[in-house]
Amino acid sequence: MQRFTVNIKLPARTLTGALSAPNRGAADWGWQGLIAYGCHSLVLVVDANTAQTLQVLERHKASVVKVKWAKENYHHNIGSPYSLRLASADVSGKIIVWDVATGTARCEIQEHAKPIQDMQWLWNQDASRDLLLAVHPPNYIVLWNADTGTKLWKKSYAENILSFSFDPFDPSHLALLTSEGIVFISDFSPSKAPASSGKKVYISSPHSSPSHNKLAAATGAKKALDKVKILISNEKPSAESVTLNDCLQLSYLPSKRNYMLLLYPREILILDLEVNQTVGVIAIERTGVPFLQVIPCFQRDGLFCLHENGCITLRVRRSNCTITGTPNEEPDPDPVQELIYDLRSQCDAIRVTKTVRPFSMVCCPVNENSAALIVSDGRVMIWELKSSISGRNLRVSSSSASPLYSPVSFCGIPVGAFQNKLPDLSLDNMIGQGTIAGEEQLKSSFLQEVHLKFLLTGLLSGLPLPPFAIRMCPPLTTKNIKQYEPILAVGTSNGSVLVFHLTSGLLHKELSIHSCEKIELEGFLSLASDMRALTSRSISFRGERGNDEPAIEMIKVSHLKQYLAVVFKDKPLEIWDVRTCTLLREMSKNFPTVTALEWSPSHNLKSLRKKQLAAREAMARQTVASDTEVSSVESSMISLLQEAESKSELSQNISAREHFVFTGADGQVYHLTVEGNSVKDSARIPPDGSMGSITCIAWKGDILVLGDVDGNLNFWDLKARVSRGIPTHRSWVKKIRFAPGKGNQKLLAMYNDGAEIWDSKEVQMVSSIRSGRNVNFRILDVDWCTSDKVVLASDDGCIRVLDLSMKASCFRMDEQDLIEPAWCPYLLVPRASLALKAFLLHQPWNEKYSLEITNIETEIIARHLTDYFMALSSCSDIKKLLLDPDFTLLQRCLLVARLYGDESELHFWTIAAHYLHSLSQEKPAKPTDTAILQEQLVNPLDICYDTLCENHYFQKFQLERVNLQEVKRSTYDHTRKCADQLLLLGQTDRAVQLLLETSSENAHYYCDSLKACLVTTVTSSGPSQSTIKLVATNMIANGKLAEGVQLLCLIDKAADACRYLQTYGEWNRAAWLAKVRLNSEECADVLKRWVDHLCSPQVNQKSRAILVLLSLGCFTKVAEMLHSMRYFDRAALFVEACLKYGAFETNDDTNILFLKSCFYYARSLKLLGFKQGAILFASKAGEAGKDLLTELKQPKEEVIQD
C-alpha cells in the first residue's frame, strides 16, 4: 500500500513578546495605514484597522532603534505603483530598507557601528523618492540613496546630534536638536551637503530656572509663560544655569509655518521662530503625570500627548475669538494673549510596573483621528477618536475651554442645515476651524457642538516574558483533517497556559491553571488529542500536597493517553491513570533515579478496541433490561453505546498494555510494562561506555535515540539490533523529538547553545542553528510544528516557526491567512490596486454605485479583490458614502485618496475641491460680494496650507500672529522684529509706537527715531517716493535686502519689493508679502512667477506648482500641466470636475484638452484591464477614441488570439 502524508500549508512566522529598551523610539504609522515597530532585532508590521500582525521582518542582528515608512507624496501609476517601503535602523548602525510585502531587503546601509539617532525620508522632490537622511553618532548627518545604498553626501557638526526635524513648509530648512541646543540649517539640499554650519541657538531649560517650582504649580500656563520669557538665545548659558539639555523632543508644527514645539517632561513650549520667543506653554500641574512624547497634527492645531502612565491626551488650540455662551455676557477684561491648548480628550492609563511601561505613541498621518500606544510588554493598543454632537446649550459652565464645533464642510463641500452627523473620517471632519469670528459664524452656519472621546478599537497582545515551554497540538492525520487547526500551547513561568492559533498568530485562549509562581518547565506540557474541545475546565492530578513536595522534573503521557509518568527531583517515579486520575503505582525508595524517560510508540491497539466494543455492548444490554420505561426509539443502540462508553471502561478497568523505557543515573536502560494496575519490569540493558549521563530519549518505530550531557547522540535500530554513537560536540542534549508523519524519521535535537535537525535513517545532520554564531538569541524550547516545520522558543521572548533549514525567513504578505480581511491596497499587484481605485472613483456606466465585483471583468483583478470589498463593507460609514449617489466626484476623489493613504492626491483634491466650490459660489452672486466674502470667512482653506489660503484669511492670521509677538516681546531684538513685521503688514501706527520705545542708551536709538519720523511723514508726492525708491534700490544692491523691501512697502511699492525678493531667491518671503500687501491681480502675477520657478529643472517641484495654480484659479493651466506630467487619471477626473462646476470656458482649446484627457485615461484603464471604464472614456474621446473603442468592443476570443 502506498504511504502518503497530508501536510497543512503553514507559513513560517514569528510570535513576539516583550520589547527591549533600545526599541523605545522605534515605531512609525505610515500613510499606507500600517504600523511598524521594533521588537528586539525584529520589525513587526501591524494593520491598524483589524489589529493583526501582517509581517515580521527578521534580518537585523541587533536591537532595532528606528523605523520609518517611506512617504507617499507622489503620483501613482503602473510605473510608480503603490508599494510598501520601510527603513529600519539598529544599535549597530545598520540601516535596512525593506520591501515589506515580500519581506525582502532592498538594500543594506552601514556607516559606523553606533546606534542611528534619527532618520527621515525626503518627500519634497518630484525627481527622486529614494532619499533617506540619517543621523550617525556622534555628529554626522548623511544623505543616502535608499534604493542603491550609495552615500550622496556627509556633513559633520560641532555637537552631538540627538534628533532632527524638517520644516514641513520649506524643505530647505532643517532643525537639529543637539546636546547643547538647536542648530537651524537653512540651506539643506539633496544635491549637496549644507555649506554652512547652521545657526546655533541655546536652550535655557525651564528646570534650570529658580522659578521652576512656580512654573509647574496649579496657577496654570499663563503665569508660567511670564517665567519663561527667554528660552532661546545666541549666547551659551552659564554652567550654573544649565547642567544639561533635558529637552525630550523637538518638532516643527505642521499646522502653521514657523512654529516649533519643544517637549520637556513637565512642559510643552510653543516657539515662534520669527522672533525666537515662547508664545505658548502647556504646563503639567504638580500632581500631573509627566510627558513622554508629543505628535503635532496637520489638519487642526492639535497635539497628541503621551504621558508616563500610558495615557494619551488630545489638546486642541483654543480659538482667539471664542463664542460666548450668552450675548449679554461681559467681555473678559484681560483677554488671553498666548496660544492655549485645551485638553479635549484622554484615554485610560495602563498599569505601569517594572516590566510594563509605555514605550512610544504613533498617530495616523492620513486621518489624525487615531493613535496607537506601544507598550514594553509587546501590547499594541489602538485608540480612535469618536465625536458626539451635543446641543449648544449643554455647555458646562465650569469649563474654561471654548466649545468645539462641527465643521461647516465635508470633503471640501459645505454642509446644509439638516445635515446628519458627519462620519468620523478624519480630524478635520470631526471638528471645525477654531479661528473664525463668533457672532458671524453663528448666524451664517449650522453649528453643532462636538465632544470628543477615545475608544479602544484594537488590541494586540504579545507573548509573556520568558522562560516558557511550548507544545504543539497532535499532528494532522487523515482522520482529523476536517477539524484540524494548528494550535500551539505555551506554558509560562506564572503558571498560565496560552493557546495560540499559528495560522493567524493570534492568541486563541488563556488558561490560568497553576497557582504556583515558579514551574519547572522541562516537559511541562502535553496536549490532549482533540484541541477543538479545549475548554477552561481543568482536573487536578496531584492536588495540594503541602510545601514540602519536591519539584516535578518531567511528565510523560503514553501514546494511547492512558498513563502518565511523573518524574520528581528527589522522589521516586509515579505512574498515574489518566482516565480516572488515580495513582497506579509509586515506586519504592530504592528505585533508580530517572534521568530520561520515553513511552514506546508500539502498542496493542487492536486488542484494546475489541475489549472496549465487547464491554460497551454488555453495558448497553444491561441498561435496556433495567430501564423498561424508555421507548424503543430513545433507546437506540447508538445513544446507548455513547452513554455506556465511559461507565464500562472505568468500571471494568479495560486498558491496553503499554511500555516505556527510562535511564538511571548509571546510564542503564530499564524497560517497564504497564497494563491496568500492574507495572512490570521487563528488561535491563547495560550502559554504553561511550555515553555520559543520559538526559533524553526519543522513540519512533524501530529507532530509539538517546542524548547525553556531553552532546553525544546514540541511534539504536531495535529491529537490526545495532547502535551507532555520534559525538556532536554541542554539550548537554536537553531535548530530542521525532517529526510527525508515518515514515518521517527526521529528528530535532536541542542543546544548551542551539538546535539541530538529523535524519535518523541516514544518521546525518540536516541543519543546525547555534546561538552567538548565526543567531543572537538562546533557544529555550523546541517542538515539531508540522512534518516539515519546527517551532523554537527563544530568550528574546519570541516563538519562531521555521522550515527544515532553520533559517529565519519572512513570508509574503499576500500569502497570509487572516482572520479578518485587511484593507491595504498596497498589498495588491499594481494593476489590481490601480483598477480598484478607478472602480471606486466613478461608475457612470451603472445607474447606481455598487461594490459588486461582477463589474470588473479582468480575472487577475477579480481574483485579488474579494477580500478588499469585504473589508470595505465592514466599515459602514465608508460603504454608505461610496454608495451614496449624491456624493460628488470631488468628494469621492478625496475619500479614495484617504482610503489609499495617497498624500499627493489628498492635498491636490482638498485644494481643488475648495477653490472649485468657491468659484461656483462666486459665479451667480456677482453683485453681493460681501455675501461671498462672508462664505469664505466662515469656510476658508485651512491655514496649514499657508500661502495657498485666501488672501484675506492669510492677512488676518498674520495680524493675529504679530499681535501675539508684540505681547510676548522681551528684548530689543524682539521689539525690532515686531516693528519690521508691522511695517511689512502696513500697520504703520503700531510700528511707530514700537520704534519710539527704543531707550536712549541703546545703540540703535538714533536710527529708530529717524525711522519713526520717516514712517509718519512718508507722503505720496513724486519726489519723496522717487528718493525713497532710489535709496531702497541701493540698499538691496549692497546686501541690505530686508531694509530695502521695508522702504518699498512704505511707499506702496510692494509689487517691486516682491520682484526684488524673487530675484534674490527669497521665493517664500515674496509669496508671503504678496498675500498680505497686494491686490489679487498683482498677487497672482507674483505667484505665477513662483510657479515658473518651481517648474524649472533645477527646482523640479511641479507638484507644488500645481497646488499654487489651483489656489489662483488657473484651472485650465492645471489640467494642461497634469496632462504634460502624464498624470492621466488625475487630469481626466479634474477636467470632469471642472466641467461640472463650470470652471472652464468652452472653446476649442478646452474641448481638445477634454478629448485628449479622456483618450489617454481610457488607454491607461485598458492597460489595467478595466474594460468598462476604458469603454466609457474612449466613447467621450471623440475621433481619437474610435479605434480604441473598436478594439475594446472586440469579442474576448479575438483579443486572446492577438
UniProtKB/TrEMBL annotation:
<comment type="function">
    <text>Involved in the Hedgehog (Hh) signaling pathway, is essential for normal ciliogenesis. Regulates the proteolytic processing of GLI3 and cooperates with the transcription factor EMX1 in the induction of downstream Hh pathway gene expression and gonadotropin-releasing hormone production. WDR11 complex facilitates the tethering of Adaptor protein-1 complex (AP-1)-derived vesicles. WDR11 complex acts together with TBC1D23 to facilitate the golgin-mediated capture of vesicles generated using AP-1.</text>
</comment>
<dbReference type="GO" id="GO:0048513">
    <property type="term" value="P:animal organ development"/>
</dbReference>
<keyword id="KW-0963">Cytoplasm</keyword>
<dbReference type="InterPro" id="IPR015943">
    <property type="entry name" value="WD40/YVTN_repeat-like_dom_sf"/>
</dbReference>
<keyword id="KW-0853">WD repeat</keyword>
<feature type="domain" description="WDR11 TPR">
    <location>
        <begin position="960"/>
        <end position="1140"/>
    </location>
</feature>
<keyword id="KW-0677">Repeat</keyword>
<keyword id="KW-0206">Cytoskeleton</keyword>
<dbReference type="GO" id="GO:0036064">
    <property type="term" value="C:ciliary basal body"/>
</dbReference>
<feature type="domain" description="WDR11 first beta-propeller">
    <location>
        <begin position="20"/>
        <end position="318"/>
    </location>
</feature>
<dbReference type="GO" id="GO:0005794">
    <property type="term" value="C:Golgi apparatus"/>
</dbReference>
<dbReference type="Pfam" id="PF23752">
    <property type="entry name" value="Beta-prop_WDR11_2nd"/>
</dbReference>
<dbReference type="InterPro" id="IPR057852">
    <property type="entry name" value="Beta-prop_WDR11_1st"/>
</dbReference>
<keyword id="KW-0333">Golgi apparatus</keyword>
<dbReference type="GO" id="GO:0005930">
    <property type="term" value="C:axoneme"/>
</dbReference>
<dbReference type="GO" id="GO:0060271">
    <property type="term" value="P:cilium assembly"/>
</dbReference>
<dbReference type="InterPro" id="IPR057853">
    <property type="entry name" value="Beta-prop_WDR11_2nd"/>
</dbReference>
<dbReference type="InterPro" id="IPR001680">
    <property type="entry name" value="WD40_rpt"/>
</dbReference>
<dbReference type="InterPro" id="IPR057854">
    <property type="entry name" value="TPR_WDR11"/>
</dbReference>
<keyword id="KW-0597">Phosphoprotein</keyword>
<keyword id="KW-0539">Nucleus</keyword>
<dbReference type="InterPro" id="IPR039694">
    <property type="entry name" value="WDR11"/>
</dbReference>
<dbReference type="InterPro" id="IPR036322">
    <property type="entry name" value="WD40_repeat_dom_sf"/>
</dbReference>
<keyword id="KW-0968">Cytoplasmic vesicle</keyword>
<keyword id="KW-0966">Cell projection</keyword>
<protein>
    <recommendedName>
        <fullName>WD repeat-containing protein 11</fullName>
    </recommendedName>
</protein>
<dbReference type="InterPro" id="IPR011047">
    <property type="entry name" value="Quinoprotein_ADH-like_sf"/>
</dbReference>
<dbReference type="GO" id="GO:0031410">
    <property type="term" value="C:cytoplasmic vesicle"/>
</dbReference>
<dbReference type="InterPro" id="IPR019775">
    <property type="entry name" value="WD40_repeat_CS"/>
</dbReference>
<feature type="domain" description="WDR11 second beta-propeller">
    <location>
        <begin position="540"/>
        <end position="785"/>
    </location>
</feature>
<dbReference type="GO" id="GO:0005634">
    <property type="term" value="C:nucleus"/>
</dbReference>
<dbReference type="Pfam" id="PF23751">
    <property type="entry name" value="Beta-prop_WDR11_1st"/>
</dbReference>
<dbReference type="Pfam" id="PF23753">
    <property type="entry name" value="TPR_WDR11"/>
</dbReference>
